[in-house]
């Protein structure tokens, strides 16, 4: 293909901005247009379920890049501009008013929309979801002291939201059909400690599936299956994952299967279209990597692919989550491990779980062990052979294992 | 300990292991801000301790290849210049001059590090 001269990036989250950043960093000198469906400068999403919901961070505190950056990097930000369709041939993006703006490369960074509860009453627009700045503002208005808040879904967003609501003085019920959420990712020990913490903080933890939501005036009644009774709530917030925003890709005939399918360079089934972030799924991987750092790395990978540069070495995926003043971090997926080794005492609250296959660490999760996680990530990425008993021994310096 | 050129002796060689950082509290730096002093492969560097992105102490970060990686969100900063090397940081942290004399590590808060 010819060298790109006009690149359209559709979406304005971390993956989109990272793509622009990496394109410029690697010397791309042509036009670069960032189409944002929302108004205002692009922002970072992790704070939405943390400090934004708490009221500590304002919009200007969570910007991905300062305003000046868009001028400096010659990134043309089209705020409030919805891309209705993509036209890989002859090359352009179609806006809501039908105007087609030319582009010789398109990067889809359309993210996803939060799933609503697939039960009667589950699509009620008064049920809050959390994905955008506006979502966070709408939810925050409801989190008043004494309010009964039902959080449905105890994954990362749900757990963080439940913790914030508790901090704000709400009476919180956390509903999930899984007894110990996150266990496949972080392992049983960490997942149990995390979930128990909700109870210790006064959250009413309910293990049940929602089977209906009914309005009672301004309040809600949540029907549960596998659980005797219902949950009454003034506010419901649902965090049960996202649906990737694949519609423009599908309409353009791109291969889509739980995400826009991409190769290691984030190239879709059309050579002029790349997809990054939550909307993309790498062919051969079972899941989309819906995490912050993955979105950032996607931008780098796509930029390299577009510019014909060699790919960087893959790294084990990492994410973090903050709740109740503690920090969860995980690398890789614990389900890939044959056995688990713990470092540190579970009842101390701060410990590390390492997932091993043979003499290699393949996954890890930790509560309040930030530095250890950094070390373990390098142990994983550098494929260091380890002695499992040394890993479990707190008197052994983890970092020293890297330098052998 | 400080001297007339406003340098502060923060540690002795050997106090900070290779790959580690030491947080020097604001009361010692006289600057109103904590400073982190890093040891990377025999060389010492000093940056403002608080990450330019979030509330994190860079002294707790991962030091390697001339950079420090923030403990919270993995933003990396150049140890020499304080310039951010990746997201989520977009702003630099101040870099301060460091000198090693007679086995002592001196930091000059507010004096720019030599490029």
Observed structural traits:
heterodimer; A: 404 residues; alpha/beta; FAD/NAD(P)-binding domain; Enolase-like, domain 1; 3 domains; 5-stranded antiparallel beta sheet; 11 helices; 24 strands; 25% helix; 28% strand; globular; B: 115 residues; mainly beta; Rieske Iron-sulfur Protein; 3-stranded antiparallel beta sheet; 1 helix; 3% helix; 40% strand
Structure description:
Chain A has helices at 14-25, 51-54, 67-72, 133-142, 156-167, 183-186, 188-200, 247-251, 292-307, 370-381, 388-392; strands spanning 6-10, 31-35, 76-78, 83-87, 92-95, 100-102, 105-108, 112-114, 148-152, 171-176, 204-207, 209-216, 219-225, 230-233, 235-238, 242-244, 260-262, 273-275, 280-282, 318-323, 326-331, 339-343, 352-357, 360-367. Chain A is α/β, with parallel strands linked by helices. Chain A has three domains: 6-113 and 242-307, FAD/NAD(P)-binding domain; 133-238, FAD/NAD(P)-binding domain (3-Layer(bba) Sandwich); 332-403, Enolase-like, domain 1, CATH 3.30.390.30. Chain A starts with 5 loop residues before the first strand and ends in a 12-residue tail after the last helix. The model of chain A has no long low-confidence stretch (mean pLDDT 95). With 115 residues, chain B is mostly beta strands. Chain B has a domain at 17-96: Rieske Iron-sulfur Protein, CATH 2.102.10.10. In chain B, a hairpin with a 2-residue loop joins strand 8 (95-101) and strand 9 (104-112). Chain B is globular and about 40 Å long. At the A-B interface, helix 1 and helix 10 of A face loops of B.
């Amino acid at each position: 293909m010819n060298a790109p001269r006009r690149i359209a990036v559709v979406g304005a989250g971390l993956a989109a901005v990272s793509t622009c950043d990496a394109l410029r960093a690697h010397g791309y000198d042509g036009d670069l247009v960032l189409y944002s469906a929302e108004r205002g400068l692009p922002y970072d999403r992790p704070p939405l379920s943390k400090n934004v919901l708490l009221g500590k961070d304002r919009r200007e505190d969570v910007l991905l890049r300062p305003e000046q950056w868009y001028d400096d990097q010659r990134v043309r930000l089209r705020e409030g501009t919805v891309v209705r369709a993509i036209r890989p041939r002859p090359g352009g993006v179609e806006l809501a008013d039908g105007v087609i703006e030319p582009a010789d490369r398109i990067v889809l960074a359309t993210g996803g929309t939060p799933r609503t509860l697939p039960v009667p009453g589950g699509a009620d627009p008064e049920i809050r979801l959390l994905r955008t700045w506006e979502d966070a503002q709408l939810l925050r208005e409801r989190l008043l002291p004494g309010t009964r808040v039902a959080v449905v879904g105890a994954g990362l967003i749900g757990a963080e939201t439940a913790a914030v609501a508790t901090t704000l003085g709400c009476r919180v019920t956390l509903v999930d059909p899984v007894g110990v959420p996150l266990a496949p990712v972080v392992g049983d020990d960490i997942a149990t400690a995390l979930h128990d913490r909700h109870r210790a903080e006064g959250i009413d933890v309910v293990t049940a599936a929602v089977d209906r939501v009914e309005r009672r005036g301004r309040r809600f009644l949540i029907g549960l299956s596998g659980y005797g009774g219902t949950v009454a709530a003034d506010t419901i917030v649902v965090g049960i994952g996202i649906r990737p925003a694949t519609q423009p890709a599908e309409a353009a005939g791109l291969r889509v299967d739980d995400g826009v399918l991409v190769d290691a360079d984030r190239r879709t089934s059309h050579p002029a279209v790349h997809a990054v972030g939550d909307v993309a799924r790498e062919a051969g991987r079972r899941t989309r990597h819906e995490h912050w750092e993955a979105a950032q790395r996607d931008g780098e990978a796509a930029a390299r692919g577009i510019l014909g540069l060699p790919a960087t070495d893959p790294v084990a995926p990492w994410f973090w989550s903050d709740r109740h003043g503690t920090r969860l971090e995980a690398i890789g997926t614990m389900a890939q491990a044959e056995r688990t080794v713990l470092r540190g005492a579970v009842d101390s609250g701060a410990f590390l779980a390492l997932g091993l296959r043979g003499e290699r660490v393949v996954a890890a999760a930790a509560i309040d062990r930030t530095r250890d996680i950094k070390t373990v990530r390098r142990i994983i990425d550098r494929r260091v052979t380890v002695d499992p008993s040394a890993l479990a021994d707190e008197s052994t310096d983890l970092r020293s294992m890297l330098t052998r | 300990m400080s001297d007339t050129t406003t340098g502060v002796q923060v540690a002795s060689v050997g106090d900070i292991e290779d790959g580690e950082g030491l947080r020097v509290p604001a009361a010692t730096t006289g600057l109103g801000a904590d400073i982190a002093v890093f040891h990377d492969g025999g060389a010492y560097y000093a940056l403002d301790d608080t990450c330019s992105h979030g509330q994190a102490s860079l002294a707790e970060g991962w030091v390697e290849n001339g950079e420090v990686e923030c403990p919270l969100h993995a933003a990396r900063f150049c140890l020499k210049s304080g310039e951010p090397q990746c997201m989520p940081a977009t702003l630099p942290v101040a870099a301060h001059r460091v000198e090693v004399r007679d086995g002592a590590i001196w930091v000059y808060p507010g004096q720019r590090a030599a490029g």
